[in-house]
Amino acid sequence: MMDYRETVETILSIPRFSRAERGNTVLHSYLEALGHPERGIRVIHVAGTNGKGSVCRMLCDMLERAGRRVGGFFSPHLVRMNERIRVNGEEISDEALTECYRRLTEARDAQGLLQLTFFEVLFVMALLHFQEEGVEFAVLETGMGGRLDATTAIPADLFVITQIGMDHEEYLGDTIEKVAAEKAGIITGNAPVVFHTGSPEADRVITERAERIGCKMIVNCRDAEVISEEVTSVGIDFSFRNDYDRYDHVLLPTEAVYQVENAITAVTALPFMIGDRSREDLKELVRESLATFYWEGRLEEVRPGLYVDGAHNPSAAARLAESLGRLMMDTGAEDSVLIFGASGDKNIPEVIRELGRLPWGNVILTRYPGSRAASLEELQRIAAEELKTGTKVRTAEHLQEALQMAEKNTDTRSEKKGLILVTGSLYLVGELKELLEDGYYQE
Question: Residues 275, 51, 403, CA angle at the centre, nearest 5°?
Fold first, then answer.
């Protein structure tokens, strides 16, 4: 019997090989061997380049507030693998995670099944945990793409597609239309489709696929009208109307203006799953749920003046810069520091170009541990080409050193005077989270 640590290490060692050739055949054999843990659960399947994690979290929170038992499957995790599998907001326990993996491996060995991929293993474990916990609704976040994602192995009752931009071009394609086609691949049945891609080209691809499959309803959230939007000291106060209703003065406790679009998407999708609620009940549920919304690593202020965001592609960086522009109006921009690190396979030039539109006092380039991280030399070369002439750029071998350098310019332990942003990779966000858990800022 493996303990929790051994289980996590074993799962992390599983190859992340492609599923392109075999599809869901092997995964279906596991579900059969395990007695189909997915049966009896209503499924919301969410894909997109940016925003899908936030929309999943919003939907989970709303359904839970409606009195439903809700499972959430998220990726990636920031610090602990347990973050990926949650029931009513609670992460799977170490013991339950270990037990789910034991059941999976016993089925594999007993029936001589082929090895699953890393993501498939976690997906099956999530379904086992949801079954054990009596989950009524499962909100599934796809991994990298959509069409070839393990989450397509089970039927869904609702498909949701969020903002689409360029990312993982080597796998998903080099145009918005190609990326949209991969994301639209989650549409595998005639359930309703709700989408908010931010791209007319992507909208067209998704609509065509949904019509071809015969989806019951096709709802484009681009048709929703934002009536007002104000960033206040406690968050974003906004009002909007869609084809079904009007929502006045909804509060999101965040300074990330891109979350308004995600909220509209989640609110538009919700009635398809709990249509038995009256309009007024739904409005109150939405208002109460969004007022407590929290999602780690999305323009999250982890200490006064110290923010983290997982933006790692150009469209996410552009949306982050929009929110930061408002924040920096209220702080000393000349004292603000950008700490940036990224994976080498990302479109780093365009990400830095988007973030570089802001008047940073200092930029510190760093890297997270691991072979995927871009080298400091590569980051320096790109920064020299993409940042404004005269921008002060320095390097740090690791995040802790970068934070120490930044704090000499901006004191995050006292009243705000400029801000520090750590961004460019969710791996970097996870590293900062670990530093905080280890007491880096303890007095």
Answer: 140
Please identify every stretch of the chain with a pLDDT value under 70, giving residue numbers as ranges: 17-21, 166-174, 329-334, 409-417, 442-443
Strand order in the sheet with 42-47: 90-91, 85-87, 70-73, 137-141, 42-47, 158-161, 193-195, 218-220
Residue with tokens 């007024």: 280
Q: What are the backbone dihedrals phi and psi of residue 251, each rounded to the nearest 5 degrees, phi first?
A: -105, 130
Tally helices (H) and strands (E) across the chain.
Answer: 15, 17
Distance CA 104, CA 90 (A): 22
Sequence-ordered alpha helix ranges (H) in 133-199: 169-172, 176-183
Cα 195 from Cα 272, distance rounded (Å):
13
Please give the single-letter amino acid code of residue 159. Answer: F
Q: Cα–Cα distance between 341 and 343 in angstroms, integer?
A: 7
CA distance 148 to 168: 14
Whether residue 111 contacts residue 87, with contact meaning beta carbons closer than 8 Å, is answered with no
pTM of the model: 0.91
Q: At what angle do helices 94-111 and 25-33 cross, to 10 degrees?
A: 100
Residues 6+ apart with CB under 8 A from 303: 412, 413, 441
The reported pLDDT for the residue numbered 205 is 95
Q: Which of 431, 409, 405, 429 is nearest to 419 (CA)?
A: 409
In sequence order, the 6+-apart residues with CB closer than 8 A to the CB of 307 are 299, 300, 301, 419, 420, 421, 422
Residue 233, token pair as written in the block: 């000291």
Q: Which two tokens stand for residue 325?
A: 């522009």
* 85-87 and 70-73 beta bridge pairing: antiparallel
- Looking at residue 416, its pLDDT comes to 47
Greatest Cα-to-Cα distance within the chain, rounded to the nearest angstrom: 64
Closest CA to 276 of 66, 46, 40: 66
In the DSSP assignment, the letter for residue 346 is S
Q: How are strands ordered across the β-sheet holding 235-241?
A: 225-232, 235-241, 246-252
The single residue listed with the structure tokens 């940042």 is 387
Q: What is the pLDDT of residues 315-332, one digit of tens each?
A: 899 989 988 887 776 655
Question: How are beta strands 225-232 and 235-241 bridged, if at all?
Answer: antiparallel
Q: What is the pLDDT of residue 330?
A: 60
Report the distance separating Cα 338 and Cα 128, nearest Å: 42
b/e burial code for range 39-61 (CB count within 10 A of at least 16 → b)? eebbbbbbbbbbbbbbbbbbbbb
